[in-house]
Request: fold
Amino acid sequence: MDLRNIAIIAHVDHGKTTLVDALLKQSGSFRVGQAVAERAMDSNDIERERGITILAKATSVEWGGLRINIVDTPGHADFGGEVERILSMVDGVCLLVDAAEGPMPQTKFVTAKALALGLKPIVVLNKVDKPAAEPDRVLDEVFDLFANLGASDEQLDFPALYASGLAGWADAELDGPRKDMAALFDMILQHVPAPAQVARADEPFRMLATTLSADPFLGRILTGRVESGRLKVGATLKALSRTGERLEQFRVSKILAFRGLSQQAIDEAVAGDIVTLAGMSKATVADTLCDPSIDTPLPAQPIDPPTISVTFGINDSPLAGRDGSKVQSRVIRERLLREAELNVAIRVEDAPGGEAFVVSGRGELQMGVLIENMRREGFELSISRPQVILREEGGLTLEPVEEVTIDVDDEFTGAVIEKLTGPRKGDLVEMKPAGTGKTRIVAHVPARGLIGYHGEFLTDTRGNGVLNRVFHGWAPHKGPIQGRRQGVLISMENGVSVAYALWNLEERGKLFIGAQEKVYEGMIIGEHSRENDLEVNPLKGKKLTNVRASGTDEAVRLTPPTILSLEQAIAYIDDDELVEVTPKAIRLRKRWLDPHERKRRAKTAG
Reply:
């Protein structure tokens, strides 16, 4: 059967997974009457809840004697470690762009990787049936993006389609029949070359491992594209590292190929196809699985280094161990090392002093997803404020800089630019109208300056602004950047919060807790309206007397508390604070909990 390998890349929420749904349905991958969930490729619970693709996944469809292996790639730069490896498995890319929003930062991030590998893109303008769609403008912006990224003349001569993934159609013309996805299938057949590896089917077997996962029955399994040769179940292979070191020799116990949404066992893997192998115990991502006669590994795509680090520790608060079942540092360490093995964009190191671990990764979202997965598995953790990773080069200290793209109402542009270029030490790169009373701002801002900024940004723009960010490069360190301005309200007692006490504390600032919630000494229960921290008593009830008079028994009406999400909490805390994460709660607290330490601190401050 004729074969094509293609990756679909897009910015977050531009409709990539929905488009794959339409391709699967129209190719006959589902039987008649089969119940299929919306966004079938988003199999992870967090992917479904947040509407984003986190893990790169492959599927396969058949169309008119053609088998197309489709790889659904993450759209967020925090999960770019997945993208860089996946692109080495395909011969073409389908770039999906929202016909209203146009190319966004994550589009630029993934497209730059694809163009650098020499892949020729097919551009699909999605959501052209939206009232705000401007396909002609967006097509020009895509061309300009390709030119800025150094695309070749052949890559600039790209074909374009107009589509609606939700409605299930794609056409070569904007006013086409709008019936089905046939035009996209035909475009893939015409413009994506067949794998060059097919011609090397008679050479010794070689395959570069690009994704690693685990199966409860098969154990460790590796997925990649067969670069040369054929492979049958039971054959012996050896694994070579990127440097050519021999890691192990093993017998292939299973070969799986993608057929629709599932993987099926096959007897033989041939050059050019994307398959999954089982049987190895040590081989991992970027290793070469090959015939024992081969001693030279395949070139592997380098992975961008981590840019931020977060310290994971045990939960040592007074409420520790009440919600979760996995609280020991040994268990946390094993889980983090397992994550680092499966995700090459994450690095885990032991923190000085013992029961804590420094986890380095791409961004706050990637860290938030890892912590959310762990709390759902029953872990209790304490999480520190994210720190950027600095680099020393030529006697200079370099720090990561991010490209921030903001779409905001015209009236709020001044406030946004002032915050980015002032205290956060960013550089304004571009500012232009974005239509319908909006302005697009592009700035290069140190990654340090963006930690905790998103909440401020939503306040400044009345919730109407859209902020996207992507790693831009390294630049000389810009000196100290001011953190959070407000202090916090800290509980000075252990017990259960009382509505009357909270009602009296509302004038001190906004609260993070409601009535009848467990609190402890050192726990942060709100944000102070001033710059200093303030210790308060949320347990203090109203003194009762036997005197009753009109006006003394006013009703207690509490303002609903501000509930911070996991990412918001991690970005909010200061260097001397921690986020306590359990399966049922997210709390903020000071690092010091011992009352003797508190008295010593008060004495020192006084």
